[in-house]
Design brief:
Elements: E1 3-7, H1 23-36, H2 42-51, H3 54-60, H4 67-88, H5 92-107, H6 119-126, H7 146-153, H8 158-183, H9 191-201, H10 204-211, H11 219-222, H12 225-252, H13 259-267, H14 271-293, H15 302-328, E2 339-340, E3 343-347
Antiparallel strand pairs: 1-3, 2-3
Helix pairs in contact: 1-3, 1-4, 3-4, 3-15, 4-7, 5-6, 5-8, 8-9, 8-10, 12-14, 12-15, 13-14
Length: 352
């Protein structure tokens, strides 16, 4: 049996995991909301529950003190995994149809939709924060409009919600592109090219945007190159960290959208050599991320500085949450693996 070692890329990562104080209560409420959407069979819902997606939300937003803000974050993380599970098994044409429906609902949140409208559209009309500087979320009924009411209650700025809406648009478009490449078995030629797509397929930027909901950080501060670089590196660490730990399961089912697989093609490497290559890349980027955290831009007042530090700490929390959740979740079959010197020795799963 062929084995390989998963590198422990967080062996010197200085940010430990914490849990959100509201998770026990809010996660159950969020799961009931997912169940109410009617998009999964009972068997699929059972697998969804077993994955404990709320765990990543709890560690990604551990310092969110407002339970309404945390509920928004928890709902959105669940929504993303729901979309991922639905679209991963579809061809490009079907994914395109669904994303067109979602984008239309996203851009026309006040539209009623047809009586037989696909549930995918209803989910986006009533569950995604569709608010920009000149439009309000549509409310269908007391039950399915509660998400919009919760979002309104945290009084987010128009600029933050515009960021979120634009990035969610990019996410759905990237999902189409990923499906097209999956249909043609296209593996990206370089890691750089791969990351250009991967940065959008996970919707992590949208998740970063939710960190800003309670803040009022000036745009010129957020636009500082150092903050932009922190966001990009944090985004890459989340995406590639997931790729490292999900590689075995994904390669077994024939997935090609993975940084390790791209490295194998780009450099002609074996599984282990590619894993080591990506592990070294990850370590270099964690070092750069930590260095940038010590070089934040100056702020005009103490409140802005405090909010900026909390936002940047939230980026680090997301990197931590992604890695820790992947290790603990049954989704990638790593929860019972024993850590050895340098990482986890695991059997290479056979292709299905």
């Amino acid at each position: 049996m062929q084995v390989f070692t998963l590198p422990d890329v967080h062996d010197r990562w200085p940010f430990p995991p914490f849990q959100n104080r509201w998770d026990d209560v809010v996660s159950l409420e969020s799961l009931r909301w997912v169940e109410s959407l009617g998009l999964r069979t009972p068997e699929q819902l059972e697998k969804f529950r077993a994955a404990h997606f709320h765990g990543i939300a709890s560690m990604a937003y551990p310092h969110v003190v407002d339970p309404e803000h945390y509920r928004i974050a928890c709902d959105f993380v669940n929504l993303l995994f729901l979309v991922d599970d639905i679209t991963d098994v579809l061809g490009a044409d079907e994914v395109h149809k669904l994303t067109v429906i979602a984008l239309d609902a996203l851009k026309n949140p006040t539209g009623q939709g047809d009586s037989d409208e696909h549930p995918f559209a209803n989910m986006h009309r009533t569950s995604v924060p569709i608010i920009s500087s000149n439009c309000l979320i549509h409310q269908h009924s007391a039950n399915d409009s509660s998400f919009g009411q919760r979002l309104q209650s945290v009084r987010p700025s128009a600029s933050v919600l515009d960021k979120f809406t634009n990035n969610y648009d990019l996410y759905l478009r990237a999902v189409i592109e990923e499906a097209e490449e999956r249909d043609t078995l296209k593996v990206r030629d370089t890691l750089t090219s791969y990351l250009e797509l991967r940065r959008n397929t996970g919707a992590v930027t949208c998740c970063f945007n939710l960190l800003l909901l309670p803040f009022d950080i000036p745009e010129d501060v957020l636009a500082d190159p150092r903050i932009a670089q922190l966001e990009t590196i944090g985004l890459d660490l989340v995406c590639v960290g997931n790729d490292i730990l999900s590689f075995n399961v994904e390669q077994a089912r024939g997935d090609i959208h993975n940084a390790v697989i791209v490295a194998m093609k780009e450099h002609g490497l074996s599984v282990q050599a590619a894993m080591d290559f990506i592990g070294a890349w990850y370590h270099r980027n964690t070092d750069e991320f930590c260095a940038l955290m010590r070089d934040l831009p100056e702020c005009k007042d103490l409140e802005t500085r405090s909010q900026l530090k909390k936002y940047v700490a939230g980026l680090a929390d997301w990197v931590t949450a992604n890695y820790e959740w992947c290790l603990r979740s049954r989704r990638y079959d790593l929860d019972d693996k024993e850590l050895g010197k340098g990482g986890w020795v695991v059997p290479l799963l056979e292709r299905k």
